[in-house]
Amino acid sequence: MSLRDLLLPLPPRRLPHARAWNVAFRTAHLAAIGTLLGGHVFGVPHDQLIVWLWVSIGTGAALMAIESFATLDWLMQVSGLLVLFKLLLLLLIPFAWDARVPILYTVVAIAGIGSHMPGKYRHYSVYYRRNMRGR
Fold first, then answer.
1. Model pTM greater than 0.85?
2. How many Å apart are CA 93 and CA 86, to the nearest integer?
3. Using one digit for the tens of pLDDT, what is the confidence trace for 66-119?
């Protein structure tokens, strides 16, 4: 088996119960991000919020793993690139603490736009230069 077959299998792999895992981690992720953003907006102390930052990053990483299990092609699509960008922004927060609220609002805006944009854009691969839905 080649590295390409391992990372970009055809047909894509299927993760057992992927939908249930996705719903569970997405729910936890939304709760963590909401708690994190609200805490920062209302001035909750850093030591009470840092755990929510790491839960947000961890649940986001889990969602990325679920999406990319089938094939790493997902990371080359607009949806995958937006997720990588959001994760990078969250990782910036410990280093740009004074900008945390605008960064978190940006993450939420990217999430809302990315999740609800038409599939022809969301599933567009910048590598293959075509829509990957349905291949």
1. no
2. 11
3. 988 888 888 899 999 999 999 899 889 889 989 999 999 999 999 999 989 998
The gap between the terminal CA atoms of the chain, to the nearest Å, is 22
- Whether the CB-CB separation of 53 and 90 falls below 8 Å is answered with yes
Distance CA 73, CA 80 (A): 9
Helices 100-116, 18-41: inter-axial angle, 10-degree rounding:
150
The C-alpha atoms of residue 111 and residue 36 are separated, in whole angstroms, by: 15
Give the contacts of 85 (CB within 8 A, at least 6 positions apart). 110
Contacts of 73 (CB under 8 A, 6+ apart): 8, 12, 125, 127, 128, 132
In sequence order, the 6+-apart residues with CB closer than 8 A to the CB of 64 are 75, 80, 83, 84, 87
Measure the CA–CA gap between 129 and 80, rounded to whole angstroms.
Answer: 14
Name the token pair of 1. Answer: 């088996």
**In Å, how far are 23, 26, 55, 108, 133 from 20, measured between CA atoms?**
5, 10, 19, 23, 21
